[in-house]
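> @MW can you paste both from yesterday?
MW: sure, first one:
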Amino acid sequence: MSSSVFNEIAIDATGEEFQNFTARIPPLADGQLLDSYSQTIAGVVNRVAPSVVNIRVTSANGRPGGGSGFFIAGDGFILTNSHVVTGARDLEVTLHDARSYPATIVGTDPETDLAVIRIDAPGIQHVRLADSSTIRVGQIAVAVGSPYGFQQTVTAGIVSALGRSMRSESGRLMDEIIQTDAALNPGNSGGPLLNSAGEVIGVNTAVILPAQGICFAISSNTAKFVAGWLIKEGRIRRSSIGVAGQNIPLHPRVTRFHKLPVNRGVLIVEIEPGSPAAIAG
């Protein structure tokens, strides 16, 4: 039917006929009213919400605290931030269905602000860790956690930047930090940052206050490495030489005389007492 014929029919139709016509159109279901972005966010939450937990902490001096975490294995291992559980006297984990269980610390790594704790509970659903090297700036980022104790709170945004650096509480510089504008608040620490497929791309760890929309997450590739060793040994082994130095250019005569393949070197400016370098002389 041509548009002109349709227009003539529409003009000639009485109000009653038009109402009868529209009454025959079936109403849209709620799911059909969601746009693609909303459907994506809702799908991520449906897949991941059962894996996200609220962690309640009682410190050694009796002070309450808390954060978020998520299951990374079906046998009760939960990944969270080190600063959430370090110094805890008691840990209690609350699941999405309001079940609560005591937790024990498997291992912590303050240098990357990551920790693994464990509970003994049936029916656990764990997440999948994505390859964070494939993340692109501008892609959807969804955060799930318990800001200020409000469990299963969802915020969404994008990946704002990649390759950021920040210092952990131990002072060590952490690399490959993800910046996002998905809103984070105290209590989101340790919760997952997710892509549109519901895979974890980062572990939410910090915000800059009072700035808005500048939040940070530890990349999932770092989390995979650290969590694996924490589960295996309870700690991360790191080597140290015990020297401080700086890059300097080598004199061309030195390079030619020693037939060196490079023209730069490291100048040792300090040796830490008692370090392997000092012991080796």
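MW: second:
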Amino acid sequence: MVIVEMFFAMRLKHFNMKQEPRARWRAYQNISYDFRLILPMLILIGIGLLMIYSATSTIALNRYHNDAYYLIKQTIWAGIGLICMVIARKIPYDMDRFWVYALILLALLLLIAVKFTPFGASAGGATRWFKIGWLKFQPSELARFSMVIFLACSLSRKADQAESFWIGFLPHVIILGIFAGLILLQPDFGSAAILCLLTWIIMFLGGVRLSHLMLPLIVVIPVGIRYMISASYRMDRIKAFFDPWAYASSYGYQPTHSQMAFGTGGLVGTGIGNSFQKLYYLPEPHTDFILSVAGEELGLIGILFILAMYAAIIWNGISIALNAPDRRGALLAAGLTAAIAIQVFINMGVALCLFPTKGLPLPFMSYGGTSLLFSMAGIGILINIATTRR
């Protein structure tokens, strides 16, 4: 259904490059959001699959005797994500409160199960995955997704009381504290920080008093700093951020090799499949540092094209939020767009050595089924809101 609508959008709402700039802009605004959101999303997923295969073919061949092992798994998740996107597009976004609370409860139970039951799967010194048989799921992604839906529902219902400390502020902060605390126990400081930032943004847009929002910073900032310095590996990452080449053989290993990848790529890149850093030099080239592989193989021109695709998604998400039919739709669209924008900003910042190393996937491109699934479901909800407006 979605693909058919995309076809007609391309067929009937095409550009005439001979028009005046304003006329072209009006033509662009008349194009269906289905096309304006799905097209860049599909392009990013396609580039991601290409880079995943390039980055993992040698590793997969040695580990699983199948060079397309990671590519096949990610393609399956992309197919599931398309189904979830279509479902999210069709189900009314202003769902009953019962389903919103059920989603929050499911996220809470999975976060508890990861840490306190045998279903938690560990990797890299952290227990962040819920695993049953072949199914491996990251509950922190569901927690972020469900928190956006919950806040949009709650703050739209309490619009007249959003400035109240006991109604507009405290209940939401309590739920945030429970989620963030469970995520920190995994431990996953980055995901907890992103969840806090995302909640702050939605509450600010939802009308919560700025004085109330500033109040937790008095506690959160010192506690966050204390938490960061409580583990030596976090401090080592911060030191490596300021001078990665001084720690090139330890915590600066990933940043330095990421810089090498971008430097080698130059303007036009080395060509697809010709990355050198992916060959056991750059750790996790298909997840956290997929952009580095793209930078080496596609060059600056390829990175700028990828940035343009993300900019298109974020721009249209903001437009949907500004033109939403109701308060709930506006907060929901703003939250989902902010979630994508924050992940893109941090992942790219880490890959370009602008931020300390943090394991965070790049939406639509990095290897990882949970992130891809919820990112695509978010696109479905954005189109849902835009369609409701029309």
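> thanks! Residues 32-389 form one domain.
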